[in-house]
Design goal:
The protein has about 230 residues and is α/β, with parallel strands linked by helices. It has one domain: Rossmann fold (3-Layer(aba) Sandwich). Helices cover about 35% and strands about 10% of the residues. It is built from eight helices and five strands; from the N terminus they run E-H-E-H-E-H-H-E-H-H-E-H-H. The chain has a five-stranded parallel β-sheet with strand order 3-2-1-4-5, with helices on both faces. Helix 2 links the parallel strand 2 and strand 3. Helix 1 packs across helix 7 and helix 7 crosses helix 8. The relative contact order is 0.18. The model has no long low-confidence stretch (mean pLDDT about 90).
Length: about 230
């Protein structure tokens, strides 16, 4: 029997790697989709390649789109990445690391790839920790995008392919995500989450992404295996 195909948005970070492992555990044939969008933390792309190979991804595409043309984010323009913020501080206002419309752009590529593959399943690693900071990580956004997706493709309109956007991490804390991944055999030393890594790829240990990650491991009584400066 032919396996179901799943497109997984794979950044190379902790969340997307956990989602990839989960999709594999559900016996999907995996198709990874990563993006070189001009981000300052391109080490995540090297991580995504290693992770894709580790989990036996059938095909892993890295799409080149230069969002530096628009800027507007500390990840794609010459703005300072916030450091040393508490989780409470992160919960207020949309941070400068928000990349305008990024998930909408990424999901659109995922939608196109899924239609070509005749896949009904698209996975993305958005989660509750990012609700307040990132508008394109909210459940109402994902729900609205899924409705739109099924109106925007030939496969959806003709009833051949009702796309489902899977967000299995949506209601989980970072520590719960890590626990899930460990149970699924994820080696988090392969992942890269830092917004402002050094030239050697080591995480800064102080940006929002690093703080959330370090705190998640600490809640489990562990040290982040990826390390940091």
């Amino acid at each position: 029997m032919e396996k179901k195909k799943a497109v997984v948005l794979l950044s190379g970070g902790l969340d997307s790697t956990t989602v990839l492992a989960l999709a594999k555990s559900q016996d999907y044939e995996l198709y990874g989709l990563s993006f070189d969008y001009g981000q300052r933390h391109k080490f995540e792309l090297d991580a995504s390649r290693k992770i894709g190979e580790f989990f036996g991804v059938k095909d892993h595409k890295i799409i080149h789109i230069d969002l530096r043309a628009f800027g507007g984010s500390a990840l794609t323009a010459d703005f300072e990445v916030p450091k040393g913020r508490t989780e409470d501080e992160m919960s207020h206002d949309i941070p400068i690391t928000y990349v305008p419309a990024r998930n909408t752009i990424f999901l659109s590529f995922g939608l196109a790839y899924a239609e070509v593959l005749k896949s009904k399943d698209l996975f993305i690693g958005v989660n509750a920790v990012d609700y307040s900071g990132y508008p394109d990580c909210r459940p109402e956004y994902i729900s609205a995008y899924e409705r739109m997706a099924n109106l925007a493709t030939r496969a959806g309109v003709e009833g051949e392919q009702a796309l489902k956007i899977h967000v299995p991490l949506m209601d989980l804390k970072k520590s719960e995500i890590i626990k899930m991944g460990l149970d699924l055999g994820v080696d988090y030393s392969m992942t890269s989450s830092c917004y402002d890594p050094g030239q050697n790829g080591l995480a800064c240990g102080k940006c929002d992404a690093c703080t959330l990650r370090i705190n998640g491991f600490e809640e489990l009584g562990m040290v982040d295996p990826a390390g940091h400066k």
